[in-house]
Amino acid sequence: MCGIALILGPGADRAVFRQMLAALTPRGEIDETLLDDAVLAGTRRLPIVDRDRAVQPWLSADGRWLLCYNGEVFNHRELRRELTGRGRTFRTDSDTEVVLEAFLQWGDDVVHHLQGEFALAVVERPTRRVYLARDPLGVKPLYWSRQGGRLHLASEVKALVGVGAPVTEVPPAHHGWADDAGWPYLEPYLDLRRLGERQAPLDDPDEAGKLLRTAFADSVRLRVDTDLTVGVVLSGGLDSSLTLLHVRQEHPDCVAFTVGTPGSEDLTYARRLTADLGVPHEVVELRPRDIRSRTVRETIRMSELTEYGDIINAVVSVPLFRRVREAGVRVVLTGDGSDELFGGYPMYHEVGPERARDLFLHKLRNLGRTELQRVDRTSMGHGVEARVPFLDPALVELALRMPLGLKSRDGRDKWILREAFADLLPDYILNRPKNPMSYSTGLHDRARLFKPRFARMHRSFGYDLLEPVRRDFDSVLMGCDHDLERAVANSVARQDYTRREHLRDVAGAIRWNATRLLRARR
Fold first, then answer.
1. 3-state secondary structure of 121
2. pTM, to two decimals
3. What region does 114 belong to: left with phi over 0, alpha with psi -120 to 50, or beta?
4. 506 in Cβ contact with 452 (< 8 Å)
5. Using CA atoms, how far apart are residues 119 and 121, in angstroms rounded to an integer?
6. Residue 379: φ, ψ to 5°
7. Residue 307's beta-bridge partner residues?
8. What is the rounded distance in angstroms from the CA atom of residue 241 to the CA atom of residue 235?
9. Contacts by 439-442 with C-beta closer than 8 Å and gap 24+?
10. Could you say which residues form the signal peptide (predicted)?
């Protein structure tokens, strides 16, 4: 896991390259570079697998090919055995080397062999052509910018701001080549809409539950294959509790991390579960008054997020991952993605099945710039690798095969998830209603006080080179009666909130915070 930076093209500016790599400093611990007349490549590496030998940029044995790679390929051991059987030899035990050898074996088809969370660039050094690829859901980021006939690539927008040209995202589930003139030609290698279409729908709850249990256990097992201590981000809710239960079973050297206000439900449930399981527990107590303008500004600088709700959620994630790093933990698992897959949002249940599927797919396709971007930036901003077991493609495919009736039943969200793991979860977790921490404890409303400044702060860092801050899509969707096509058009036409909307929102936040303060003084 790391941050990558490259400049390809004659006359590449080494000073610009150093600035790019410096902007990625928090993502790792070691600077590694390879520089020649037309290719400047480097990583800020966070050592996880084969920590001493998995150096980057990684070169093929003949020096023709160069790999810069961010992420983890969890099936690297199986791929190594297959590639060895095909006559390929290895110098390390790292997944980095496996990725390049797999590319040399299968070329563009390599993405269909990699099971993991990745963003990569493979450079053919004599021609300066580069192959780019990003994982199916966009867990790991990759951006590009073109200036002066040269292609600039980096893991974060902040590393490309100094180039002074528009920044473009490599979309999730896309791959392709950039030519020696620096123009990427990318196409999708996976269509989420077609996942599972060749298999029968999963209508039977027993069958769906068994498959779900197996797939989730496999996903967690792959993601805890390390000799390092593994952390779990624990809110005390269904998804993170399931993650902790499985991590503890597969990798007993684990620790849970929870952020919440003193006396909040999250802390109460998380403390009870970790005590019952005998898992060490680190708690970050955060009070609404701890959220100030400088807190929000630093969150925007780190996260680069473009929707208001994601920024507000990131305000809470930053101190959480700061504690993870202070505890010396490099790898954590989170419960992100479960709500999107298994009907954790009310909007899925307010429309018919077909429209619900469209909303479901829209959510998934945009995770890379919303929830997953929040997780990546706030974790890697502290040198912590966050893995998301619910978003393994096998689980995504299962969720796509399930009808809405398995996800919401008898007034309960994520019904199939609760049903499948009912024998593993304690009743107090199984029956806990969904109650997001940031909304239930005042942290969300405290952060809302600063919403009118979000866009200005975002522009001050130059992030509008990618896109400006815009209104929350969920709010637009509600205003359009959950008509997805109309909401997308409306979002394009009116990207940001109006001044009147901001004033109304802030007035509500002021009333809420004032009421809370008066109650606290009684």
1. strand
2. 0.94
3. beta
4. yes
5. 7
6. -80, -55
7. 470
8. 8
9. 440/264, 440/265, 440/266, 441/260, 441/261, 441/264, 441/266, 441/288, 442/261, 442/288, 442/512, 442/513, 442/516
10. none
